[in-house]
Amino acid sequence: MTTATSRHSERRISPVFVGILAVTAVTGWATWTGFAEQPGVAVFLFVTAAWIVSLCLHEYAHARTALHSGDISVGAKGYLTLNPLKYTHALLSIVLPVIFVIMGGIGLPGGAVFIERGRIRGRWRHSLISAAGPLTNVLFAVVCTAPFWLDALDGVPNDFRFALAFLALLQVTAALLNFLPVPGLDGYGVIEPWLSYNVRRQVEPFAPFGLLFVFALLWLPAVNGVFFDVIDAILKSLGISDVETYCGQELYRFWQGSNEFCSAAP
Question: Can you tell me whether residue 144 is helix, strand or coil?
């Protein structure tokens, strides 16, 4: 009986996550209805809260897949409650990605759940655990872009449409960055089980610096331009224009003041 109760409590959705969902819903409603006196503030809170929700789901997907692959320790660590405060590095997984969204409008990958890989057998299972997180971002991006490629935006207020476009941009960038086969990122985790022991051993010391290496490359204008050209091409194929993502980001940065171009956008 005690064991069953413990397992149930380990999988109970955290009030912290419920609170973040509530903020997402309320600010999304305020953005849609124009209830907020300052629409930029509502967009900021809506996109930030929704972004944190996606980060929680990303890490939950890793943990849940690991659970079904043999790592039963994830429950005791609190990873199945969707509580971001239970992550191994809450700063890296929640605070830092939000700061990067505010600064540069890019979905920063975060790594936060510690999987006991020794409990898991089979290379396919290891690969699937790594892939589960960014696949969640892909699914989130599909949900965000669905109203655009389904032409279901008639009557939708511009502020909400722009906010949704910017949120889709974050999900696409997060998925693309996470799938890069760079040590320390999920993309490398997908292919790592298939590499030889010697290769894995040689690459392992570079894993903590993989993300820093990626962002150092993105500071190069040529690399940055190619990266965002790819992002824009993906979004355009899903019905989102660069004007919509631009205006979404401008609304999100409400402290910069109103943008007349976006206010006049159809």
Answer: helix
DSSP 134: H
First to last CA, the chain: 60
Q: What is the dihedral of CA 93, 119, 196, 198, to 10 degrees?
A: 80
**What is this structure's pTM?**
0.90
Count the neighbouring beta carbons within 10 Å of the beta carbon of residue 228: 17
Instruction: Enter the tokens of residue 40.
Output: 């930029």
Q: Name the active-site residue from 10, 37, 59, 244.
A: 59
192 is catalytic: no
Distances (CA, A) of 28 to 9, 19, 174, 187: 30, 14, 21, 32
Contact 139, 86 (CB under 8 A): no
pLDDT (tens digit, 9 = 90+) per residue, 21-37?
Answer: 999 999 999 999 987 77
- Residue 173 · residue 231 · CB < 8 Å: yes
Question: Would you report the helix, strand and coil content of the chain in percent, each value rounded to 5?
Answer: 75, 0, 25
Q: SS3 sequence, 167-209?
A: HHHHHHHHHHHHCCCCCCCHHHHHHHHHCCHHHHHHHHHHHHH
Q: Residues for the chain: how many in total?
A: 266
Percent of the chain with pLDDT over 70: 91
